[in-house]
Structure formats: C-alpha cells, structure tokens
Amino acid sequence: MKSVTLGMRRVSRGWLSFAEHCDLSMLALMPATILKPRYLLPIAPDGVQEGAGVAVEDGRIAAVEPFAALGGRFPEAETIELDSHVLMPGLVNAHGHLAMSLMRGLAGSQPLDAWLNEIVWPLEKRIVDRDFVADGTGLALAEMIASGTTCASDHYWYPEVAAEAAVRAGFRLQLAVPVVDSPSAGLRDVDECIHRGVELHDRYRDEELIKVAFGPHSCYAVDLKALKTVQTLADEIGADLHMHLHETEAEVAGARARHGISWIRVLSEMGMITPSLQAVHMTQLDDGEIDCIARGGVRVIHCPHSNLLLASGRCRVGDLKRAGVIVGLGTDGAASNNSLDMFQEMRTAMLAWKSAAGDAAVAPAAEMLKMATLDGARALGLGEEIGSIEQGKSADLIAVDFQHPALQPVHDVREHLVHTQAGHHVSHVWVAGRCLYGQGRFNTLDIERVMARAQEWPERMQA
Question: Do the Cβ atoms of 87 and 41 come closer than 8 Å?
Fold first, then answer.
C-alpha cells in the first residue's frame, strides 16, 4: 500500500511534495484511494470518529471503516494521510446569486426594498451580461471551494454561463433558472424564461454535476397564472421550484393588501405547497403557515446573515424543524452578505437561533453542521447523492487542518468547526473524487485570471 502524507513524504515514485503529488494523482483520486484523517465527521451517522477512514473508488465512497479494515479490503490502494485534519462532507450553499460576488460590499445598510429597487436592479439592468456572469461566477466558485463548499444553488441571470463555469471547475451546482415578468438580462418575458429552463434541463440531463430547477423570483415578481404554469411544467419534467418567499414583513403585507391572505396561503390555494418547492428566507411565518408547509413537504432554505444585514426578519428555524421541515443553509449573494463562507454562515445561524430562543442550549454545533451538509443537500433534492460520508455516495469531501493556533487544543471538533474561522483552514476539496483544491492551490481554476477579471469590475460599474 502506497502512502502519502503532508509535507515531504515518500511514495512509490520517490520523494514528492504534497502539492506535486496532488498535481500528479489527486486531480482525480485513484481507482482506489484511502483517506486517513485524524478525525472523521461523517454527519450520518452523527458523531466524530477517530481511527476510521474512507475508501474512494471511481469518484464514490466505497467504504467507511477502521484503518486496519480498509487496508485489508483495499491492499493496492494509495493512502493519503491527513494527520491533523478533520475529514467531512463538503458544505452545501443552498441559496445564492453567485455572479453578485462582483457587487460585494456595494450599497450596505439599506432595507431590502430600497436595496433592490434603487440600487441592485437598476445596476443589473445596466451592467449584467455574459461577461459579468462568467467573471462573478468564477470569483464565487473560487471563494466557495477554498472555504469548503462543494455544492451550491445559483439563482441568477445567464444560467447557462454559470453552468459552463461550474462544469469546467468540477463544482456541483443547482441552476435555479430565473423567471420574472419584466424583461431582464436577455430574457423578454416569462415564456422565454420557461423556454430557457426547459432547454437547460434537457442539455444537462445527463451531467452529473448540474441539476436544473426553475427559479421564479417571488410571488410579487411573477404573475400568479404564469407561476402556476411554471409549476405545472416543472412537475412534468421533474424539476423543482426555487423561490424567495416571505422574505420581509412588507412582502407579506403586500400579499394581504392584494389578496387578503399571505403568499403561503395564496400558494396553498393554488396547490403549490408541495415537496417540489424550495422556499428561500421564510422570515415571516405564523403557526398555521408552518403547519401548512410541513404538511406540504416544502423545503426551507435559511439565509441568516443576509436576513440580519437587511433587517428582513428571522426565520423560525427551531419551530420549522420541530414540525419536521427540512431546513438547509444558504449565504444568499455576496452583495447582501459579503461572504460565501458556509462555516461563517453556520455560526451566524447558531447565534441568531440562540438569541431568538433566549436559550443557549438550542442550536448545538452538530445541528448546524447537519444543516450545512446533509440537510442542505436534502433541501436541494440531492440528499441521496451528497451531504454525508456514507457508502455509495459521491465523494464530495473536504479536509480542515486543525494544526493552527486558532484550532488548538481540541476539546470538541464540532464546536471548533462552527465557532472558529474554520473556512480559512480548509486544506483539500474533492467533488466526485476529483481534487479541486489542495494546500492552497486551485487545480481546476485559473485563480490569477479570476482575480484579475474581478478587479476590473469596480471601474466598469462606475463608467
């Protein structure tokens, strides 16, 4: 059995640095490779394991067993020693607008209505094109990969451009194809939005890393008749709906002014509260609405940092989970967060939940890690494929190096992952067994070009 560890270690070919080894054989893990971490955090089952590792074959998890058992089952496998690391599932950013990374830090301290109507939407109409989406998506992918995210949902213009960038980078992506009434970013109307969604669904039907959903912006941005048409078509082709819903008090008040009831109750009357709905934000919920979405099987995506930054409200995460609702985590776009680091998002979610409950015992670190991995995968309809380290699932894995003053001593691995800047210490990222990132090096992105292109945009936005 060949063995590789960090630093200068011996392999069958002789002495190589880890970075050199990553270039030669970890761009795609060998047909049989054993990963031996200091700590294993599989998520399912719950708990932190020591003395156990993961065998990967052909991009999938072949076994999760004690080291000795793995060596016996895979005697010809190459072994990668992760002596000071936690090995865990890649994080799932279940809602974002990736290209908006180019708007990071723009127009802070604004309420959502003013932020959208006076700043973001006018700017988007002026500058968003295929180049903007290509450059912004590349920047977002780099940030997410380096901080341990292996899967995201992107709800933005020119989704075909984002898909191409993700496939090139080897990154797993849900495309929530935008659906809006008004013309925008090359789409004339709802019919053209729908046509684009169907086209992309057909194009990527057999692409392992791309899942296509329909992304109506919101109930107030799409005519209700058209919204029902989108759902009917989505059901026919087996696609989900990914939509902002009950994001602010003003949004819900607008629904009551127009229809006499909230948007959730409007959707319920239309037969749209179903398991195909991925509802984003959900900061304004009463008990009856929570019961409604729980019975309907709706999946909720919580974006705590964005909600707090825009003062949009707080999602009743604890009540939703007690009702049996799947709740994943998302960062939203960098323009309303400034970061796409899912470790930071976990910490924000935990603190917001504890504060709202007035109870320090709620929102344990284990729960937050599950929301950012397996529950996020389930929210996107990918729970059978990713989100936990289980035999048969895709090898979407990350390693976090605890050999740093901010992560020592180790009393509780999960507390460290949530309460420190663990995203800064991600050392390896694999998607479907392919090494996208190792020891500070991007293997599938031209990071110099990504950075150079991003740095051109502030001036272009002001022109």
Answer: yes
Which tokens go with 383?
A: 């729970």
Q: Enter the tokens of residue 227.
A: 């919204």
Q: Compute CA 454 distance to the chain's CA centroid, rounded to the nearest angstrom.
A: 21
Tens digit of pLDDT for each residue in 178-203?
999 886 776 778 889 999 999 999 99
Would you say 130 and 161 are in contact if contact means Cβ atoms under 8 Å apart? yes
Q: At what angle do helices 159-169 and 190-203 cross, to 10 degrees?
A: 20
pLDDT score at 185? 73
**H/E element holding 72?**
helix 67-73
Single-letter residue type at 290: I
Q: How does pLDDT run across 226-238, given as a tens digit for each residue?
A: 999 999 999 999 9
How large is the C-alpha radius of gyration of the chain? 22
Q: With beta carbons less than 8 A apart as the criterion, state whether 399 and 373 touch.
A: no
Q: What SS3 state is found at 353?
A: helix
Residue with tokens 């998890």: 61
Residue 21 to residue 29: CA distance in whole angstroms? 11
Place of tokens 């990504």: 450
Predicted structure pTM score = 0.94
For residues 351 and 343, what is the distance between their CA atoms, to the nearest angstrom?
13
Kindly report the number of other CB atoms within 10 A of residue 257's CB atom: 8
Q: Take residue 5 and report the two structure tokens written for it.
A: 């560890």
Q: What is the C-alpha to C-alpha distance for residues 22 and 29, in angstroms, rounded to an integer?
A: 9
On average, the pLDDT of the chain sits at 92
Q: How many Å apart are CA 151 and CA 130, to the nearest integer?
A: 22
The length of the chain is: 463
Cα–Cα separations (whole angstroms), residue 457 to 23, 139, 176, 180, 463: 32, 12, 25, 26, 10
pLDDT over threshold 60, residue 15: no
What would the two tokens of residue 190 be? 């709802």
Residue 10's pLDDT band (cuts 50, 70, 90)? very low
Q: How far apart are CA 402 and CA 408, in angstroms?
A: 7
pLDDT interval class at 25 (50, 70, 90): very low
Query: Does residue 20 have a pLDDT over 50?
Result: no
Task: Measure the CA–CA gap between 259 and 385, rounded to whole angstroms.
Answer: 40
User: How far does the chain reach from its first CA to its final CA, in angstroms?
Assistant: 59
C-alpha dihedral, 416 to 422 to 428 to 434, nearest 10°: 100
